[in-house]
Known about the structure:
Layout: E1 3-8, H1 15-26, E2 30-32, H2 33-43, H3 46-57, H4 63-74, E3 82-86, H5 92-101, E4 107-113, H6 116-124, E5 126-129, E6 135-137, E7 156-157, H7 164-178, H8 180-187, E8 191-195, H9 200-211
Parallel strand pairs: 1-3, 1-4, 2-3, 4-8
Antiparallel strand pairs: 5-6, 5-7
Helix pairs in contact: 2-3, 4-5, 6-7
Adenosine monophosphate binds at residues 11, 33-34, 37, 54-55, 58-61, 66, 87-88, 90, 94, 161, 170.
Amino acid sequence: MKKILVLLGPPGAxxxxxxxxxxxxxxxxxxxxxxxxxxNLKKETEIGIKAKKYVESGELxxxxxxxxxIEKELSNFIYNAGFIMDGFPRTIExxxxxxxxxxxxxxxVIYLKADDDFLVKRLSLRRVCENCxxxxxxxxxxxxxxxxxxxxxxxxxxxxxxxxxxVRRRLKVYKxxxxxxxxxxxxxxxxxxxxxEENLKNTLSEIKKITEW
Length: 213
Ligand code: AMP
């Protein structure tokens, strides 16, 4: 049996932070569609050029682009024993495509739930390393040295889409296009809800209780 963990939830619920910690602990590779897209933007690849306006304004990148990108990524043998998915699927169309590539018996979907006001506040305090992508929170997960990444020494920046106006847009997009996945996975009996407003330690222990991995 493969171990596939899908992290579902609004922006700022903790998918990226939780995903990167569990990926190390469980030695399962992490696939973050947002990270792959940002890498493409940085390198100005064909995908990056097409995706830029959507990523920067908080809209979803069109399904065809993201689905092709993820399908290609998943064809790598490193994902054969399982993986953690952060940020994909984000639409019903993407979920249907993901169904074709996976067996639902292998999948656990963790829905990290949090309220809008909480998310706006948390994202305003989020910083990321511009070099390695490590995620910080100025109060809860601060770097040892202000403005500098603990892991690689890179510069910490605020994502352009973490500005409040863009965050509000992303929350609206989430409700319209991604939240329907909650029902979709509930009906398949593979959805587990976890409180995303809890501290990191409790959130991680909840997830581990559910997965038993
Ligand atoms: P994230 O890092 O998951 O917050 O993603 C950042 C941005 O990348 C999103 O606001 C979207 O513009 C884009 N993105 C990431 N994953 C997807 C996806 N599965 N489908 C469409 N757009 C995506």
